[in-house]
Amino acid sequence: MDYIKAQNVLPEHIVKIIQQYVDGGYIYIPRKEENHKAWGENSGTKESLKMRNNEIYIKYIEGMKIAELAKEYFLSEQSIRRVISKEKELFSRTLHKCL
Q: According to the lineage, what is the superkingdom (predicted)?
């Protein structure tokens, strides 16, 4: 997040009103609700994890052991089980919608 000088984007009278509350400090102005992005949308992390989890599930279905998956993806066996469980649930919900 880059800082923007208030005097460069706001009318002078607005800057003076803000100075009554925050004189020389930093203030965060949140995004409008309609412009809010979910976690991982900007960086692509969300999509990347989604693809990774799908890969894990496919490899599990193809017969790869949980311990092997944990080593390959640098995750605990518990995390692998959690991924498999969530992917299985997603798959069955998607399949149910198609039928």
A: Bacteria
Domain that holds residue 12: 6-30
Tell me the residue type at 74.
F
Length of the chain: 99
Rounded CA-CA distance 88/36 in Å is: 30
pTM reported for the whole predicted model: 0.59
37: in domain:
no
Tell me, yes or no, whether 22 and 53 share the same domain. no
Report the candidate in 69, 39, 71 with the shortest Cα–Cα distance to residue 55. 69
Whether 70 and 79 have beta carbons less than 8 Å apart is answered as: yes
